[in-house]
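User: Assemble these into one structure.

Assistant: Restating your components, then the assembled model:
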Amino acid sequence: GEDVEQSLFLSVREGDSSVINCTYTDSSSTYLYWYKQEPGAGLQLLTYIFSNMDMKQDQRLTVLLNKKDKHLSLRIADTQTGDSAIYFCAESNDYKLSFGAGTTVTVRA
Amino acid sequence: NAGVTQTPKFQVLKTGQSMTLQCAQDMNHNSMYWYRQDPGMGLRLIYYSASEGTTDKGEVPNGYNVSRLNKREFSLRLESAAPSQTSVYFCASTGLAGINEQFFGPGTRLTVL
């Protein structure tokens, strides 16, 4: 959706960290999300952050939220080949989610 | 639990043909959604149903109709398919409790010639 923007492609070497960035517009969103889509499959929730938090860590994943700049990022530590996928940032609005265009992450050996 | 199921997985239509995409969920969720996914455009909401008995337009409703048949099922109909409707269609559902996680089906890949 046009309210959520993210870069389209990221190439990263196996073992390095990946950082995917996203900007959103709805400051009233209670939660912000990162979804992962593997080839030929639907989206699955990867992680989320509550809007009153600045950071959330979940194993190899770190989510950073800058509410002032409406900027959200996802860092994947020690990127593996299984992390190759499309990653979508999303913001909540009543019953609905608005998704970014998705960032295709390619992990090279 | 099967989660969210969609049929068919693939479909090829000729311009002007009609078809219905089926979606069902077994998680007792109140809200259901239909999205289309196109390269470089992410997921765009076509229609949604906040609860059984209600449906509302999303971002790109033109050329589509929906039916919330019961709490489990939410179908999407193309009355007269056009090449611009070539896309991958996803159904999703949520119970709206907690973090409002949406659960997605595996998708239907539709080609309109």
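The two ends of chain A are 32 Å apart (CA to CA).
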